[in-house]
Amino acid sequence: TTGLAGGTGTAVFILGLGRLSGETLIVTRYLLTAFSGEKALWQAMTKDLAGVEVLITYNGRRFDQPIIDSRCRLLGLPGLDPALHAWDLLYPVRRAFRTVWPDCRLMTVEERLLSHHRQDDLPGSEAPWVWREWLQQGIRTRLKRVLDHNGRDVESLAALLLMLPRVFTEPMRFGADMVGVSKSWIESGDTLTAVALLSAARRRLDDRALFHLSLLYRQQEAWQGAVSLWQVLASRGHVEAMERLAKYHEHIAHDLDAALRWTGHLIRVDGAQPAHLHRQQRLEKKRAGVGKG
After folding, report:
1. Beta bridge partners of 56
2. pLDDT tens digits in sequence order for the chain, 293 residues long
């Protein structure tokens, strides 16, 4: 595009479309040679997308699609079909890697997930200047690098589309965030797969993921598994795990002595918080009442 800020003042001068046909990726690219040809560019896009049901992008929800819609409106064209299903792969990548990678740019995806390192790549931020240089002065020495950059983006998007299912079924293999991956499964309505993935990797999970798994066990009323994890975490000073143990022993196991012990541990580790003190007082009163009965 002519700029990275977006908005109606941003025009598209290279449009790259990739279509998977069996094991072949067919890439079509359009280069805008004059602003007078912009309408023809979008008409060509509409023709290429005829019959397409799914449009796959990377950050398309916030960048590509708004620009396409705004430019088409300005030109009196219909733009993208509202019935088109748009899949923005940035969001599953963020869910899987936001906490383990420095960023989730497409170039980072290429290097860390697709094992691809671009050679002699022109940064996308320089592309508008190269295009204006060619448009105004006829200098095209760097224009091929802009086209190559666009082509690599499309190729990487196709490769990522094929790789993501493996990431979400084998998250530990790819170093993904186990909590993020499991939440995706849960949101899709498949909590059993989320629990299975976490349970299989239990020995390698960090405390955050272990506590997340414990809450899933709790939701399923698999108390033995939940309590076991809370005890492991509590031994490491995990405050929330101690609190869960105090609640479990009070409300599920009905063991007031154990509930008081864990509340005492909680106060020693987390300090005399009002909620902890209130629980301690309540438990002492309940135990005293049980003793009188």
Report:
1. 87
2. 887 655 556 889 999 999 988 889 999 999 998 889 999 999 999 999 999 999 999 999 999 999 999 999 999 999 899 899 999 999 999 999 999 999 999 999 999 999 998 887 787 788 888 888 888 888 888 888 889 889 999 999 999 999 999 999 999 999 999 999 999 999 999 999 999 999 999 999 999 999 999 999 999 999 999 999 999 999 999 999 999 999 999 999 999 999 999 999 999 999 999 999 999 999 999 998 875 54
Which residue is it, tokens 């860390």?
Answer: 112
**Beta-carbon neighbour count of residue 292 at 10 Å?**
6
* Cβ atoms < 10 Å from Cβ of 220: 13
Beta strands, E only, 22-137: 24-31, 54-57, 85-88
pTM comes to: 0.87
- Paired tokens of 170: 């084998």
Distances (CA, A) of 239 to 23, 128, 162, 257: 51, 52, 41, 19
Q: Which pairs count as long-range contacts for 256-264, CB under 8 Å and 24+ apart, including other chains?
A: 256/283, 256/286, 256/287, 256/290, 257/287, 259/283, 260/284, 260/287, 262/234
